[in-house]
Amino acid sequence: MNPKTGDRLVGNWLLAIAAMIFGMVVGGGYVRTVDAGFALQVWKPIVGFLPPVSDAGWKHLFALYQRTPQFQSLHPAMTLTQFKAMAWPNILDRDWGRLTGIAFIIPLAVFRWQHRISNRLTIWLLFIFSAGAAEATMGWYMVRSAMSPGTLSPSPLWLASHFVLAMMIFSAVLWAALSIRNPVPVPVEGSTHLRPWLTTAIALIIAAMSTGSLVAATGANRVYNTFPLMNGHVMPQNAWALHPLWLNLVANQGTVQFEHRALATAATVVVLIAAVQGLRVPTGTKARDLFLLLALSVSLQYILGMTALVSGMNSIGYSHELNAVLVLAACIACRHTVRGTNATIPYLVTKAAE
Fold first, then answer.
1. By CB distance 3.0 to 4.6 Å, which of 62, 97, 244, 304 could disulfide with 320?
2. Residues 91-122 pLDDT 10s
């Protein structure tokens, strides 16, 4: 491996994995948007690639779904054909997850056998793979919760935790990919002040995404469809109506929406400040393009959020969710460009081979 340019093949492989994780957000977000997450009450991680090949197989899956409170309360007249339409997005989403796992672990084994990745990097990537397995397991238990009495939709805590873990995995894979492609940090004069701004921005983006999951899980996008005030108030008057009080933070529609508005606004302000500062620093053409992309994507994100709220359209909310991942990716890329301004910063990956 060239110490200057890094191992491009290994780095590009991890960039492809990051793109596949984004594909999981696309599929999972669609399943959530159409409220189909409880359809498949069976999980076969290894042998479950193929959908049912017979009418009897489909009827078996349908019979399992018919045992859920969601079916009994919301869809008692659903037909087998309608069930298939609900199940297919789940099947495709799960299969994409399986493909992502295969695309991760097999090349990892090959690159390790070829001595293209170090012991340190191997351990780190195996940890990421384990986190991915935990993510899949968490997803299954969230789906399985459909069998609990009175459960009509996934718990906000399940949904938010599931999404935040996915974003942590995405962030780790993207950072590792960028570090392998460019293992030697390039000092950028005059950009030291950008590091805390961008680090804070990443944290705020993930926090805003977590509350966005709570908004989706509680249906909070269907209330207080005014902006910037919430039906004439800064905070809803019933913000602390639930007991115990902490439950309002995850289940009260008004409180959850207020949290998301506040965090999204804070994230947007911090990201824009960081982006503008980055554009004023002589970081080079490529880095400048990244900071410009960051500014444009976060501006679009805020506009999408306001539009989704005022219109109440799930399709715009879905676009808002997907663009949030792109904002996060752009912010991570910008943070990576200035990582060489302080030699004491620990890097996730310092080299791809020893």
1. 304
2. 999 999 999 999 999 999 999 999 999 999 99
Distance, CA of 35 to CA of 14 (rounded, Å): 31
- Tokens 């459909």 — which residue? 146
- Reduced to 3 states (helix: H, G, I; strand: E, B; else coil), residue 6 is strand
**Lookup: tokens for 93:** 């989403």
Is pTM beyond 0.70? Reply is yes
CA 181, CA 12: separation in Å to the nearest integer? 8
- Determine if the peptide bond prior to 107 is cis (ω within 30°): no
d(CA 304, CA 292): 18
Phi, psi for 157 (deg, rounded to 5): -65, -40
Q: What is the pLDDT of residues 275-308, one digit of tens each?
A: 999 998 777 778 889 999 999 999 999 999 999 9
Place of tokens 């938010």: 160
Counting every residue written for the chain, the total comes to 354
CA triple 162-131-124, angle to 5 deg: 145
Q: What three-state secondary structure class fits 185?
A: coil
pLDDT, tens digit, 9 for 90 and up, residues 114-159 = 999 999 999 999 999 999 999 999 999 999 999 999 999 889 999 9
Hey, which residues does 2 pair with through a beta bridge? 6
Query: Comparing C-alpha atoms, which of 160, 139, 148, 146 is closest to residue 250?
Result: 160
C-alpha span between 305 and 227 (Å, rounded): 10
DSSP 230: B
Predicted confidence at residue 354, as pLDDT, reads 37
Distance CA 251, CA 261 (A): 16
- Quickly list H helices, 155-226: 156-181, 194-218
What is the C-alpha to C-alpha distance for residues 127 and 129, in angstroms, rounded to an integer?
Answer: 5
Residue 347 is given by DSSP the state: P
* Cα 221 from Cα 214, distance rounded (Å): 10
Confidence band (pLDDT; 50, 70, 90) for 344? Answer: very low
Tell me whether the omega of the peptide bond preceding residue 51 falls within 30 degrees of 0, making it cis. Answer: no
pLDDT of residue 6: 62
